[in-house]
C-alpha cells in the first residue's frame, strides 16, 4: 500500500459504503501513515498491547532515550530494573527480551519478512513469545503495507466498528470477522478509517513516526 493507492482505495470505499462515507465526512481522511519496518516498530507494538497509545509511546521514548538507539543488543544489555523505571511491565520486559534475542541471533530475520505472504509473516512472528496474531497483523498492516489486514482482536477496531455502524453491542472477534467481509479486499484501508474515527471521537491522534527518530536501523 502506498499513499496514492490508499487515497484511491478510500475514494472507492466511500463511494459504495455509506457508513464509511459518513465517517470520513465527520472526521476526514487520515494522513497515510506507515511505521518503519524492523525491530523498533515491533518493540512499540509489544508496548502497545492492552494499553493506550499514549502510555506505550511514553514508555518507548524513555527506553529509546536511555539506550540511545533501539537495537536488540542494547536492549538486552539493559537491566529489568531500568526497564521497569521506563514503564515496562515484567511481562513485556520478557517479551522484549525474547524478541531482541531472536533478532540478535538471526533466528528471526526481519529483513526477509517482506518477501513472505501474510501467513508466512504470521508464522515467523508468532514463534516469538509475546507476539500473537494481533501484533503480527498490525505489523503486516502498518509496516509491510499489506492491503487486506483486519485485526479482529483489536479492541479499538471492535469499538470503532460498533460506533461507525451504530451497532447495539461491540462485536466479538468472530462477529467482527464477518462484518469485515463487506470491505474485502481493502480491509486495511477500512481499518485505518475506523481507527481514525475512533481516535477523533476521543480527541486523540495516531502515534507519529517522529517517535522513531534516533531509534537506529529499522531492520536491525
Provide an overview of this structure.
Helix 10 crosses helix 12. The protein folds into 2 domains: 3-32 and 147-201, Endonuclease Iii, domain 2, CATH 1.10.1670; 39-144, Hypothetical protein, domain 2 (Endonuclease III, domain 1), CATH 1.10.340.30. The chain has 220 residues and is an all-alpha fold. Helices cover 58% and strands 0% of the residues. The radius of gyration is 18 Å and the shape is globular. It has helices at residues 3-16, 18-27, 39-48, 53-67, 72-77, 80-85, 90-105, 118-125, 133-142, 155-164, 173-180, 187-201. It has 12 helices and no strands.
Briefly, what is this?
This protein is mainly alpha-helical and 220 residues long. The chain is 58% helix and 0% strand. The protein has helices at 3-16, 18-27, 39-48, 53-67, 72-77, 80-85, 90-105, 118-125, 133-142, 155-164, 173-180, 187-201.
Notable traits:
single chain; 220 residues; mainly alpha; Endonuclease Iii, domain 2; Endonuclease III, domain 1; 2 domains; 12 helices; 58% helix; globular
The appropriate CATH architecture of the largest domain is: Orthogonal Bundle
Average pLDDT value? Answer: 94
Q: For the terminal residues, how far apart are their CA atoms?
A: 23 Å
Report the order of strands and helices. HHHHHHHHHHHH
Query: What is Rg?
Result: 18 Å
Class per helix and strand makeup: mainly alpha
User: How large is the count of helical segments?
Assistant: 12
User: How would a crystallographer describe the biggest sheet?
Assistant: none
Assign an overall shape.
Answer: globular
- What is the β-strand count? 0
Amino acid at each position: 500500500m502506498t499513499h496514492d493507492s490508499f487515497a484511491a482505495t478510500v475514494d472507492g470505499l466511500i463511494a459504495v459504503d455509506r457508513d464509511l462515507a459518513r465517517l470520513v465526512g465527520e472526521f476526514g481522511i487520515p494522513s497515510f501513515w506507515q511505521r518503519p519496518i524492523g525491530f523498533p516498530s515491533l518493540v512499540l507494538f509489544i508496548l502497545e498491547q492492552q494499553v493506550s497509545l499514549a502510555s506505550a509511546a511514553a514508555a518507548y521514548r524513555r527506553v529509546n532515550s536511555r539506550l540511545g538507539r533501539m537495537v536488540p543488543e542494547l536492549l538486552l544489555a539493559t537491566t529489568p530494573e531500568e526497564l521497569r523505571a521506563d514503564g515496562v511491565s515484567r511481562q513485556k520486559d520478557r517479551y522484549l527480551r525474547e524478541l531482541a534475542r531472536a533478532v540478535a541471533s538471526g533466528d528471526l530475520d526481519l529483513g526477509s519478512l517482506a518477501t513472505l505472504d501474510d501467513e508466512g509473516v504470521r508464522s515467523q512472528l508468532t514463534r516469538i513469545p509475546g507476539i500473537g496474531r494481533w501484533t503480527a497483523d498490525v505489523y503486516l498492516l502498518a509496516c509491510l503495507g499489506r492491503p487486506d489486514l483486519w485485526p479482529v482482536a483489536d479492541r479499538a477496531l471492535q469499538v470503532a466498528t460498533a460506533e461507525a455502524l451504530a451497532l447495539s453491542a461491540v462485536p466479538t472477534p468472530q462477529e467482527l470477522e464477518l462484518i469485515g467481509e463487506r470491505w474485502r479486499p481493502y480491509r486495511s484501508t477500512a481499518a485505518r478509517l475506523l481507527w481514525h474515527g475512533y481516535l477523533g471521537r476521543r480527541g486523540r491522534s495516531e502515534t507519529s513516526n517522529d517517535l522513531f527518530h534516533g531509534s537506529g536501523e529499522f531492520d536491525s
